[in-house]
Design goal:
Elements: H1 23-28, H2 32-41, E1 43-46, H3 52-66, H4 85-91, H5 94-104, E2 109-119, E3 125-128, E4 144-150, E5 161-163, H6 176-181, E6 185-186, E7 194-198, E8 203-205, E9 213-222, H7 239-244, H8 249-252, H9 270-280
The structure holds 2-oxoglutaric acid and fe (ii) ion.
The site of 2-oxoglutaric acid has 10 residues, from strand 4, strand 8 and strand 9.
């Protein structure tokens, strides 16, 4: 294929830059503080990203689907996208979609949607970067972003997420010494707020020292060229599901990308190729 036969976009939006296309949405949704904090600190909290009622529905969904998990329901509810409309609505919230696009580019896909339930006495989680399987040094462009919705909100004593501000700048995994000794802060939220960090940022969680539960949706999205953690593409074959799914779901499932479009007798889909390469640089 030649550049004459097809327009291939050659310029890229740089790491932590906002594309001209995305800018009006960041303005409208008042996300500049979040965008700047993601760039400077590697994490942020989006306040009031979801209505509190949606969080109580989400809590019920996670508790009910966790019962199906084998061998141990304590692992939480797994592979949640496309299983319940509440989860799909949370996954496609406008503020979430805009911050994901800023961090991991247009055409990003769903990576992992997992629900966890932490009870009194529940242990904390050691510091790590979410792009665990990516060798250091990490690329300058972020590859993965995680949004955590604590349905009841979260407090330090309730086992909040902990984060090491600015650790994304190291562009590598924490060493054993850094896992033990880094200075972290607890992220405290109200129901409807969402905590978010990029794939390089060191984070974990604290133990829960109070009664009750911390019920959390961990929603991970990935840059379009990366191997997604979970494969949700089966949902693209379910017309009935797609007909009623919220706008944005098709994109999260990878619809329209050129990967896998060639057959034993036909070459790749050139329109999809052009569209994918354009998205990948925004
Ligand atoms: O449970 C938490 O607060 C953080 C979990 C975590 O590391 C993640 O979702 O990536
Ligand atoms: Fe994590």
């Amino acid at each position: 294929m030649t550049e004459e036969s097809l327009h291939i976009e050659s310029s890229s939006v740089g790491p932590f830059e906002v594309s001209d296309e995305l800018r009006p949405r960041i303005d409208e949704l008042e996300l500049w503080d979040v965008v700047n904090q993601m760039r400077d600190e590697g994490y942020a909290v989006i306040r009031n990203a979801a209505p509190p009622e949606l969080m109580s529905d989400l809590r019920e969904v996670i508790h009910s689907l966790a019962k199906l998990t084998r061998p141990d329901p304590a692992r939480g509810a797994v592979k949640l996208l496309g299983r319940d409309r509440t989860v799909d609505l949370v996954a496609t919230l406008p503020k979430v979609m805009a911050v994901a696009e800023y961090s991991i580019g247009k055409g990003f896909r769903a990576g992992r949607f997992h629900g966890s339930i932490k009870r009194e006495g529940g242990e904390g989680l050691a510091l790590h970067s979410d792009q665990n399987w990516i060798p250091a040094p990490f690329p300058e462009h972020n590859l993965l972003i995680t949004f955590c919705f604590a349905c009841e909100g979260m407090t330090e004593e309730g086992g909040a997420t902990i984060v090491v501000p600015k650790s994304h700048k190291a562009r590598r995994h924490p060493t054993p010494d850094e896992i033990t000794n880094s200075k972290s802060i607890a992220i405290e939220t109200e129901p409807g707020d969402v905590a978010v960090w990029d794939g390089a940022t060191w984070h974990g969680s604290g133990p829960r020292r109070i009664p009750g539960t911390r019920t959390m949706l961990h929603a991970t999205y990935q840059r379009l060229y990366t191997q997604t953690i979970d494969d949700f593409s089966y949902l693209l074959n379910d017309e009935e599901y797609l007909a009623n799914a919220p706008e944005g779901i098709r994109g999260l499932l990878g619809e329209g990308l050129f990967f896998g479009t060639s057959t034993l007798t036909t070459d790749i889909d050139m329109e999809k190729f052009a569209d994918t390469t354009a998205k990948s640089k925004l």
